[in-house]
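Shapes recur. Our protein:

. . .
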Amino acid sequence: MEKKASLKDIISHCKEYGFIFPSSEIYDGLSASYDYGPNGVQLKNNIKDYWWKSMVQLHENIVGLDAAILMHPKVWKASGHVDAFNDPMIDNKDSKKRYRADTLIEDYISKIDNKIEKEVTKAAKRFGDAFDKEQFVTTNPRVLKNVAKRDGVQERLNKALREDDLVELKNIIVDCEIACPDSGSRSWTDVRQFNLMFSMQFGALASEAENSVVYLRPETAQGIFVNFLNVKNATRQKVPFGIAQIGKAFRNEIIARQFIFRMREFEQMEMQFFVRPGEEMKWYNYWKEARMKWHQAVHPSEKLRYHDHEKLAHYANAALDIEFKFPMGFRELEGIHSRTDFDLSSHQDLSGKKLQYFDPEIKESYVPYVVETSIGLDRMFFAVIANGYTTEQVPNAKGGTDERTVLKIHPYLAPVKVAILPLLKTKPELTSKAREVFDLLKVITDCQYDEKDAIGRRYRRQDAIGTPICVTIDFDTLEDNTVTIRNRDTLEQERIAIDQLPNIILEKIKFPNL
């Protein structure tokens, strides 16, 4: 039987097994800042690789870019970030803690969702196979009451965000009796806007000149837009085409929390797809479906859903999120946005440089419209770990059961694909043969050699970091040149000839089926 993982369990596991460490920990750390350890950086690189191959390698009309983090300050004036990149902020008078007003309300809504889910879970256990979930949620008085309460708060929040009504945001917090998570106090300031960009002085001397102040980029998209002509001319791409980029971004979040879900320094995987005006909704729907399939290839469908934006950004005419069910509830994982021609037109106006495309099919020049796909790499990392983390009972050699913690993540993403394990480290003939197998396999995939502790403990260590295949070298190997391979998820073992290992392993860790 599997146990549901808590956020605390996941954080502890990530530190113990070298996925994520608190940054500057020997100095008591820095709030919401994390370092990726040996297994973490490999998992992160594998996620990047999965995204890059899916976007660039599998699409002839999408190319890559790596733009600078520091850009001319006028870039952020044209994009609207200087004037409009704000979040609604509220302070608690007693705890002196600062929060995003909309996030406080969203967390309140999530708590109601959790109450509904608990009612459903209890009913499912009570009625067993006869349980009809749809009938239960549409007839049970407690569920109906909570649904009405949730929907009412959600409707008020959506309206307040659409209308930038800061007074109403505070009214919702007061009416719902939302308390400070730190102190439990309900003494709140008024809601006000807070700009999220980090600024810094550029050059050796600080001055009042406009060009001496630059910003750490709050998104990677603008580096793509200002390079639109450079990329188009260098690659001879024709509309529709896309530019993909992976890179760091920085936002001075009011409060960064929930592990790596919301940080001030994070990494984005973004693709801007340039299309003919009037065709943006066709491509918006295309990328909406394509990106969901990408997630479904490595995550269960029931943990994913679409969420249409009630309030559109100043640049968009359509937007939605692909949400994932994290330990704290459904949250945004990836955004799909139809950005119209806002970005290119704004940069064209402020720079005085034409950012247009001559379309040979219709013999017209125009500023292309853009459809954006934007996913947080750190959030995707979190989703992979949260979905894979499993504690379960498994059979032991004595006929009973033991508890094991295992990361059931897609083999293609696993930080270590194959573990090479000699049965005993005290037998040179076994360790020597194991080293031969390790040398054979390390050139084709990510391998780990491990000879410390009993074989059972080594299996558990590999389970805990998500290694899909363990290869054990024993005394029979010396006789017939075969090894035992163990499947992480099923625990099944089979005997395989060493010369067959490369092909069998490559098949088991192949690229996800899109």
